[in-house]
Amino acid sequence: MKRYYICLSGSGGQGLILGGVLLAHAAVIDGKYVTLTSSYGPEARGGASRSSLVISNNPIDYPLPYKLDLLLTLNQASCNCYVPHLKEEGILIVDSTLIMHPPPIRHYSVPFTTMAAEAGAALAANVTALGTILGLTGVIKPASLEAVLQARIKAELLPVNEKAFKLGLKEGRKLKNHSEEYYIY
Questions:
Q1: Which CATH number belongs to the domain containing residue 133 in this structure?
Q2: Full domain range(s) for residue 110
Q3: Predicted confidence (pLDDT) per residue in 90-129, tens digit
């Protein structure tokens, strides 16, 4: 595997910092090298939030992504801000529940927040998105992320998060198998 550059972006309170931690931990379980950097606005909720990961089979000499292989955006402001950092052939995934004006480039539009609400908690949209990312890219084994969920999520919240992850994984695999059908301009 070459280096894979990922950015999870949205608003504070959407669980993107936690999503980055979960993804990084799963990458370690898979035996990969990983770096994780995060930033968030001064607001407790609603400010900008971002987790950036570099995942590789080889040691990583610089912790920040260059041009992104994959950009996940869970709100309009982060979509507008980070799209210029996406590689030309990179994958853009937007939450169609919250992003009304995606850029006029190829992207996947997935209703993460709605799917997570169907699983039992709209706040699990981050985990639904992680499932979709893994189903679409295969960058990390789904079993590794499932193990991380069991290790890091509170017992009372685990069933909802596992269900949200499985819904996202199923969606990601559907997108991968029918990419031309689901890629939107």
A1: 3.40.920.10
A2: 4-182
A3: 999 999 999 999 998 999 999 999 999 999 999 999 999 9
